[in-house]
Amino acid sequence: MYLSSSRAADSAAGTGTGSPRSRAGRRVAANVLVLGVVSFLTDVSSEMVSSVLPLYYTSVLGLTMLQTGFLDGLFNGASVFLRLAGAHLADRFHARKPVAVAGYALSAVCKLGLPAAGASLPGISTVLAVDRSGKGLRTAPRDALISLSSTPGAQGRAFGVHRTLDTAGAFGGPLIAFAVLSAVATAYDAVFMASFCVAAVGVLVLLLFVRERCGPRPERRPVTLGAAFGLLREGAFGRTCLCVMLLETATISDAFVYLSLQRQDDLAARWFPLLALGTAAPYLLLSLPLGSLSDRLGPWRLFLAGHVCFLTVLALLASSRGGPVVLVAVLVLHGVFYAATDAPLMAHAAALLPAHSRTSGFAVLQSLQALGMFASSLLFGLAYRYLGPHPTLYAFGLGLLLCLVASAVLVRAVLPRPVNAPTAKEAK
Questions:
Q1: CA–CA separation, 267 vs 248, rounded Å?
Q2: How far is residue 204's CA from residue 38's CA, in Å, rounded to a whole number?
Q3: Can you spell out the DSSP letters for 67-130?
Q4: Which residues of the chain have pLDDT under 50?
Q5: What DSSP string describes 127-154?
Q6: Do the Cβ atoms of 2 and 151 come closer than 8 Å?
Q7: Which of 410, 408, 384 is nearest to 396 (CA)?
Q8: pLDDT value for 15
């Protein structure tokens, strides 16, 4: 199966001489590259906004850390229900691309809603909820297209390539936001409008150049929401989902990492968007190497190792020492955390899920991940208000350590081979 899939993928790519296995290991499907370009543009757009939102909340709107925690949790968790519904439609009607287009378009339009909402907390909450719903719609179909466009032995590499392009956008977005704010001071509306224009180009690229990919159509096995949740009863996948949700609850969001650094070092407002670049740079450099490494060593091992990096981040933030060395160390480790967890987690899940319901399986996993993020932001905001910054960071560090131990015990590091690998026809 693997050799025939590799030959088909090589033939489609127009490769020359050399063994099919070695060529398949070096090449990535065109669909993956185009989806990477779409994510690059979308991340430029979204990171222009998200890199300034925490400071926009606290400095311009005057929100407390608790209110910021609510909005940040909403930003991460509002996508849960549409994520599941969109994935169900994508799998049932083999329409992954249309669902992804709808999600990208919805998020693009929401960039225009932020300046319209002004300083209204309900207005901003609504816009953020709709924006994250768009992200929820698109993420699982996009990841399923990446997985189904790739050979079984190159899942980590394919996701690594995609995340590299995605992170290049995350690197460019804060730079553009920094340039805009440097030119027009606190004119955040200019950032929001520029963000919309970039997102609209990404939607056009997706419409014009991405090809649909379908898994096999199994007889007498209709795709239903019940069947999607039934995947949680599969031992390895169910335990993976539980561990991922717990680990997400024990980590803290980017917004709180950056706000902690900003308050620790008393950074000027105009430098705040550049903190995201410190995370994006190692993420950009390491996504592909670590994604490829996960194909050889096992993605779950790298996933857990990434959370060890985040445990160190929490320890450094709680130390309250501050200074450039601590700041750089936190941002680098934060980027390594993402590079070691994002692509490997999707590669891990792809090996556990049948091709015909892979979109739904990804959506279930990502929905529980989003619920963990939502709970984390609310808990951090509450604890910060009543306990203060350092006890809160220590408490989250202890929780993350316990969750890491549980995850290492519950989920095997060495995975079985994919049960429903793409056929030669699907790999073309």
A1: 28
A2: 9
A3: HHHHHHHHHHHTTHHHHHHHHHHHHHTT-HHHHHHHHHHHHHHHTTHHHHHTT-HHHHHHHHHH
A4: 1-22, 24-25, 218-220, 414-428
A5: HHHHHHHHHHHHHHHHHHHHHHTS-GGG
A6: yes
A7: 384
A8: 36
Q: Which two tokens stand for residue 41?
A: 């543009």
- Pair 162, 32: CB distance under 8 Å: yes
pLDDT at 424: 36
CATH topology of domain 29-212+231-422: Growth Hormone; Chain: A; (1.20.1250)
Domain ranges for the chain: 29-212+231-422
pLDDT of residue 186: 66
Q: Judge if pTM exceeds 0.90.
A: no
Counting every residue written for the chain, the total comes to 428
H or E stretch including 300?
A: helix 299-319
Kindly report the backbone phi and psi dihedral angles of residue 186, in degrees, each rounded to the nearest multiple of 5, phi listed first: -100, 30
Tokens linked to 14: 């127009």
Residue type, 296: R
The whole-number pLDDT of residue 87 equals 84
Amino acid at 184: V
CA distance linking residue 17 with residue 11, whole number of Å? 11
Spatial CA neighbour of 139 closest among 201, 195, 92, 84: 84
Whole-number Å distance between alpha carbons of 50 and 48: 6
Q: Where do we find the tokens 């709970």?
A: 375
Q: Which helix (H) or strand (E) holds 330?
A: helix 324-350
Q: Which amino acid is at 35?
A: L
